[in-house]
Design goal:
Layout: H1 2-15, H2 67-76, E1 82-86, E2 91-94, E3 105-113, E4 123-133, E5 136-140, H3 144-169
Length: 171
């Protein structure tokens, strides 16, 4: 019994030295993948604690999310004061911003970068709006087009940054 436990422990320790594979965004919630989606063994070994020491980085940097979407979001929201930014979790939160032409109205934005790939569904933005009524800030609804327009601007900027990166690398 003790001998087999020792052999099993050694085998698991050796398997942990292998490299796993990245799970692509398209593989999540794909019913065609069946049981393979949840398997422990990647293409090159057992993955323990989700570590991959291959050094592969498809996002163009050491961020936890796509670098172009991250930078595109920061550039797009640069007119608003930044409250917090988590590059590993992919969350950007602005502070309240009042446009100069409407000081009795203010906006706040939360942006979520959802993955490491530059995809159209890789960013989600929530916009919050308040108006000042008799000295009190009151929440009011925002048209859904506002968040969609910001997402479109982020995606356009991210694609622009990627194109610039490819041009620079080709020189």
């Amino acid at each position: 019994m003790r001998h087999s436990t020792l052999i099993l422990s050694a085998a698991l320790a050796l398997a942990a030295c292998g490299q796993g594979r990245y799970v692509e965004e398209s593989e999540y919630n794909d019913p065609r993948r069946g049981i393979e989606q949840g398997r422990l063994f990647g293409d090159r070994g057992l993955i323990i604690f989700g570590t991959d020491r291959s050094g592969r980085d498809d996002a163009g940097g050491a961020l936890g999310v796509n670098a172009y979407l991250w930078r595109g979001t920061l550039d797009t929201l640069s007119f608003m004061p930044l409250a917090s930014a988590d590059p590993f979790g992919g969350v950007i939160i602005t502070d309240w911003y009042s446009p100069p032409e409407t000081p009795a109205e203010r906006f706040k934005v939360t942006a979520y970068i959802l993955g490491r790939q530059l995809r159209a569904d890789g960013v989600r933005i929530s916009v919050f709006r308040q108006v000042n009524t008799r000295g009190q800030w009151v929440d009011v609804p925002v048209t859904p087009d506002t968040a969609t327009a910001l997402e479109d601007r982020v995606l356009a900027r991210a694609r622009e940054l990627r194109a610039q990166s490819v041009q620079t690398a080709g020189r």
